[in-house]
Design brief:
about 425 residues, alpha+beta, Aminopeptidase, Alpha-Beta Plaits, 2 domains, eight-stranded mixed β-sheet
Length: about 425
């Protein structure tokens, strides 16, 4: 661990050569050094937390059991004012001296797996396999490891640190936990937001926004032979999909589209009464995402009218209904932002240099509100997220994940030197 390149500071802030305020990483503080060592020494404990909490089911919209257990672990580690809010977020606090920023450190409780899923974790050598073991049981374990290291040490922070286990981060949840956090629980009271999600040592500094719809086209339907000559909802969908396939989108900012699911019809010899497609639009730019949304709506309307025009003698009409599956706002901040620089500096101290990237995480919401936010990986390595074959391997230095989070958080809250 390289600690000699950072000056110990009483304040959490220094002025960088460009004149912007950049948090100092207090790696030379003796109490911080002790906490970093404690994380490494207690690595087996952290892995046990990861496995044991992962064996508590947390299917979409039913995270309460895992949340209740996380709340008990928060209390046992000395966090105060531990509570579960009205949507199921688990919140615990570690108050600071009142002279620094208020920082939220979060990981998500939910998984993508239904209630019937076998969530037992299997171990083979250093590899743990089980649904959600990396996404995001690793993140929850990192939160607990950081809370434990702070609780056992003598670190006093200038700012308050709030630990949160959020609900609804995964697809159908539509970020409902973190939305509630910023709209109701902590509106206007968060200076920095840091989430821990997944495995590895990556840094998400930009938010990929998404618009997801189920587009349902309906008509009277009929017999494929006897009623031939009327508009067909499935044919109209085909026209729309062909138009979508020809969309031109920018490479920068990266913008994408996909029709993921098609449903409809009752039999091969029927003109369908309805057909539906699920569409996913994504971009790092909210402007590009909104533009693509407009183009999608235009393509569907044009397809319906083209299907009407194909059968001018028919009085049957089609309608298009839009069902919003989920919307996640895009967000951007420069890599020069203090929160990003704090994470990069902390990584360098620990001996690695992550690249910044864009993704869709709980950080989307604060970024879209202009609140500095990042998502850090939790260390180790893994694969198979969102599959029954998901696995996690701590490798030789999985403990660097929680160390990285600890150093970054302390750079943001500031440490009181004693």
């Amino acid at each position: 661990m390289r600690v000699g390149i950072v000056l110990l500071a009483v304040s959490a802030w220094a002025i960088d050569p460009l004149g912007a305020q950049t948090p100092n990483v207090p790696a030379e503080n003796p109490a911080v050094r002790g906490a970093l060592g404690a994380i490494r020494t207690a690595n087996a404990w952290t892995l046990n937390q990861q496995v044991s909490i992962c064996e508590i089911p947390a299917p979409p919209f039913a995270e309460a059991s895992r949340g209740a257990e996380l709340a008990e672990r928060f209390k046992a580690l000395g966090l105060v004012d531990v509570r579960v809010d009205s949507v199921g977020n688990v919140i615990g606090e570690r108050p600071g001296g009142g002279q620094g920023p208020r920082v939220v450190l979060s990981a998500h409780l939910d998984t993508v797996f239904p209630e019937s899923t076998d969530v037992r974790v299997r171990r083979e050598g250093s590899r743990f396999s089980g649904p959600g073991i990396g996404d995001d049981c690793r993140g929850l374990a990192v939160l607990l490891a950081v809370a434990r290291a702070l609780g056992e040490g003598t670190i006093a922070t200038n700012g308050d640190l709030v630990f949160v286990g959020t609900v609804g981060e995964e697809g159908p949840g539509n970020l409902r936990g973190v939305r509630h956090l910023f709209e109701r629980q902590s509106a206007g009271r968060v200076d920095y937001f840091l989430s821990v999600d997944g495995t590895g040592l990556g840094l998400t500094s930009r938010a990929v926004g998404s618009h997801r719809y189920r587009v349902v086209i309906k008509g009277p339907g009929g017999h494929s032979y006897g009623d031939f000559g009327m508009p067909n909802p499935i044919h109209a969908l085909g026209r729309a999909i062909a138009a979508i396939g020809d969309f031109t989108v920018p490479a920068v900012p990266r913008t994408t589209f996909s029709v993921g699911i098609l449903t409809g019809g009752t039999s091969v010899n029927s003109i369908a009464m309805s057909g539906a497609m699920d569409v996913d639009l994504r971009s790092e730019s909210q402007v590009a995402l909104d533009s693509l949304d407009t183009e999608l709506r235009r393509a569907v309307a044009t397809a319906v009218e083209a299907e009407h025009a194909r059968w001018p003698r028919s009085g049957a009409r089609l309608t298009a209904e839009w069902v919003e599956i989920g919307k996640r706002p895009a967000g951007a901040q420069p890599d020069s932002a203090p929160i990003v620089q704090a994470a990069l500096a902390a990584a360098r101290i620990l001996g690695f240099s992550p690249r910044t990237s864009a993704s869709s995480t709980d950080s989307n919401i604060p970024m879209s509100l202009g609140i500095p936010a990042i998502t850090l990986d939790g260390g180790g390595r893994g694969d198979g997220a969102h599959s029954l074959g998901e696995w996690y391997d701590d490798g030789e230095d999985g403990w660097k994940g929680p160390q990285w989070v600890l150093l970054t958080v302390l750079a943001l809250t500031g440490v009181v030197n004693r």
